[in-house]
Design brief:
By secondary structure, the protein is an alpha/beta fold. A seven-stranded mixed β-sheet has the order 5-2-1-6-7-9-10. It has a four-stranded antiparallel β-sheet with strand order 12-13-18-19. The protein has a two-stranded antiparallel sheet with strand order 3-4.
Length: 310
C-alpha cells in the first residue's frame, strides 16, 4: 500500500517506524518546517523529519497544506495517508487526494478530548482510562468515523509524557492494523456517538500549581503538564519546577504550601495542600537542573534554610 505519512513531534516517530517496519510503501513524509530550539535558537528539523531522513524517505516540509502542497501530494499517487500529530489542518482538497483518504491516529477515546492536547487534558480532568483511536479524517475537528481503539489505565504517578510513550506503541500497532484492513477492504468506520469534550493546547499558565487547592487536583495538573511545559510554582519571583507527585493522605497537618522535610537516609519532602500532603519525587530549584527531591532536601537541611511554596 502506497501511503503518505504526516507527523511532526517525537510521539509520531514511533508510528513512522512501525509503518516502515510493516512494509508500507511510504511515498513521502509531510512534516512542519524546521523550528528554532534551545537558548541559541538553532534551526532544527522536527523529530519526524530527522527520522525520515535516517530512513531515506522523501520529505515535504509545510507549515500549512496549501494548494501547492496539495499538488505535490497529488503527484505521489497515494492510496492512503496516515497522520499522527502533524500540527496543522488538512483542507478539503487535500483530504480528497488519497484514494482511501486520511487515517488519523488520535490519542484519546473519541468523542472525548477532541483537539490538541487530549492526554494532557484527560489527566488534568481526572480520567482513569485514556487510549488511542484511528479514524477517518474529515474537515470537522476529530469528528470522523472510528476504525478501532486501544485503552490504557492512568496510574497515580503516570504523567502525560509516560502515557504518550505507552500510547505511541499501542496506537502505532492499531494504525498498522487499520491500514492493513483498509488495504484488504475490511476496514469499517463507526460514526462517533455520545457527548464530546475538547482538549485545547496546554499553556505555561496551565502548569502553575496552587497549593491552596486539594492534593488530588494539584497532582493531576502537575502530571498533565509533565514533561511540557512542566509543573511549576513561583516563590519570590523565582520558579521551582516539579516532577511527579505522590499523595500522602496520612499527612494532613501541614498548611497549604508549607514544606516539611523528614530527615533520613533518603529525606522526604512533604508539601501541604487544602487536603493532605504531596510528596514530590523530583524538584528543579531556580537556575539548576531537575534533581531527586531527596537530594534537594539534603541541601536544604545542610544550609538550615526554611522553604515555603505558599
Amino acid at each position: 500500500m502506497r501511503i503518505l505519512f504526516a507527523g511532526t513531534p517525537q510521539v509520531a516517530v514511533t508510528s513512522l517506524d512501525y509503518l516502515h517496519e510493516a512494509g508500507f510503501e511510504i511515498a513521502a513524509v509531510l512534516t512542519r518546517p524546521d523550528a528554532p530550539l534551545g537558548r541559541k535558537r538553532v534551526l532544527t528539523p522536527s523529530p519526524v523529519a530527522a527520522r525520515a531522513e535516517e530512513l531515506g524517505l522523501p520529505i515535504i516540509k509545510a507549515a500549512k497544506i496549501t494548494a501547492e502542497t496539495t499538488a505535490e501530494l497529488q503527484a505521489l499517487n497515494l492510496e492512503a495517508a496516515a497522520i499522527v500529530a502533524y500540527g496543522g489542518l488538512v483542507p478539503e482538497a487535500a483530504l480528497q487526494v488519497p484514494a482511501h483518504g486520511w487515517i488519523n491516529l488520535h490519542f484519546s477515546l473519541l468523542p472525548a478530548w477532541r483537539g490538541a492536547a487530549p492526554v494532557q487534558q484527560s489527566i488534568i480532568h481526572g480520567d482513569d482510562i485514556t487510549g488511542a483511536v484511528t479514524f477517518q479524517l474529515e474537515t470537522g475537528l476529530d469528528t470522523g468515523p472510528v476504525f478501532g481503539q486501544v485503552t490504557e489505565k492512568i496510574g497515580e504517578l503516570d504523567t502525560a509524557g509516560i502515557m504518550l510513550e505507552r500510547l505511541s506503541h499501542s496506537g502505532s500497532t492499531l494504525l498498522v492494523q487499520t491500514l492493513q484492513a483498509l488495504d484488504a477492504g475490511q476496514a469499517v468506520g463507526i460514526p462517533q456517538s455520545g457527548s464530546h469534550t475538547y482538549a485545547p493546547k496546554i499553556t505555561d499558565a496551565d502548569a502553575e500549581l496552587d497549593f491552596t487547592r486539594p492534593a488530588t487536583e494539584i497532582r493531576r495538573r502537575a502530571h498533565g503538564t509533565t514533561p511540557f511545559p512542566g509543573a511549576w510554582v513561583k516563590v519570590e519571583d523565582q520558579r521551582f519546577k516539579f516532577g511527579p507527585l505522590r499523595e500522602c493522605r496520612e499527612a494532613s497537618d501541614l498548611e497549604p504550601g508549607e514544606v516539611r522535610i523528614e530527615p533520613g537516609k533518603q529525606p522526604k519532602v512533604l508539601i501541604g495542600t487544602a487536603t493532605w500532603a504531596l510528596e514530590p519525587t523530583e524538584i528543579q530549584p531556580p537556575g539548576k537542573k531537575m534533581m531527586k527531591a531527596s537530594d534537594w532536601a539534603r541541601g536544604v537541611l545542610t544550609q538550615g534554610t526554611k522553604v515555603s511554596f505558599a
